[in-house]
Amino acid sequence: SAVISQKPSRDICQRGTSLTIQCQVDSQVTMMFWYRQQPGQSLTLIATANQGSEATYESGFVIDKFPISRPNLTFSTLTVSNMSPEDSSIYLCSVEGDRGTEAFFGQGTRLTVV
Amino acid sequence: SQKIEQNSEALNIQEGKTATLTCNYTNYSPAYLQWYRQDPGRGPVFLLLIRENEKEKRKERLKVTFDTTLKQSLFHITASQPADSATYLCALYSGGYQKVTFGTGTKLQVIP
């Protein structure tokens, strides 16, 4: 299993500002995943972050809006840039288990943009 | 288009009864299907995985079935307890580069 520490757990931000979310894993992992969970909706994959290369973004998500860093095998950040109220959501980081058949999640960051 | 459907209405059951949650999918040929539990303010927690060639999987009070003909998975919690109250998500692994797609989840409320 993997233990993931994600912070901040919640934040209220002004429109037009940026927020960086940090994700720390207690073991080395190849891939880290960033999800968004809007109110009443399911988890939507934003991007996959590999150490040493640029993140791979899913359709509808772009690097300028959601820049990601992956400086080493245990840490990643997601920045939500130039925020608008539509960005209010829960953001989750995730890693795969050793067998690659289960996912472990951080506790999420609840973002409210006002 | 690909779609995963879970009952969006909350499921309320009496303590001690069996809860059954449904996950239907279209336009997928999943290699496996997962079930997760999510509590308010927390990330999802992995519960069970069932592969395409498996009909049923059990873990303690949990049972999952997988019917690739009906394109449906059923998730059962027997002898339900108030502590089982949570949102349950199904997720499909659709192959390729290990991308997992989640359903919207069903909220279960077990009434004492």
Plain-language structure description:
The complex is a heterodimer of chains A (114) and B (112). By secondary structure, chain A is mostly beta strands. Helix content of chain A is 0%, strand content 52%. In chain A, β9 and β10 (103-105) form a beta hairpin. In chain B, a hairpin with a 4-residue loop joins β7 and β8 (72-77). Chain B has no helices and 11 strands. Chain B is globular. Chain B has 112 residues and is mainly beta. Classes of the chains: A mainly beta (114), B mainly beta (112). Chains A and B meet through β5, β9 and β10 of A and β4, β5, β9 and β10 of B.
List keywords for this structure.
heterodimer, A: 114 residues, mainly beta, four-stranded antiparallel sheet, 11 strands, B: 112 residues, six-stranded mixed sheet, 0% helix, globular
Structural class computed from helices and strand pairing of chain B: mainly beta
Average pLDDT rating of chain B = 91
The oligomerization state is heterodimer
Count the E strands of chain A: 11
Helical fraction of chain B: under 10%
Q: Give the overall form of chain A.
A: globular
Name the chain pair whose interface involves the most residues.
A-B, 24 and 23 residues
Number of helices of chain B: 0
Task: Bin the strand percentage of chain A.
Answer: over 45%
- Amino- and carboxy-terminal Cα gap of chain A: 37 Å
Strand content of chain B: over 45%
N-to-C terminal Cα separation of chain B, in Å? 41 Å
Name the average pLDDT of chain A: 93
Low-pLDDT runs of chain A: none
* Rg over CA atoms of chain B: 13 Å
Let me know the number of strands of chain B. Answer: 11
What's the helix count of chain A? 0
**Mind summarizing the main beta sheet of chain B?**
6 strands, mixed
Which segments of chain B are poorly predicted (pLDDT under 50) over 5 or more consecutive residues? none
Described by the principal axes of the CA atoms, the overall outline of chain B is globular
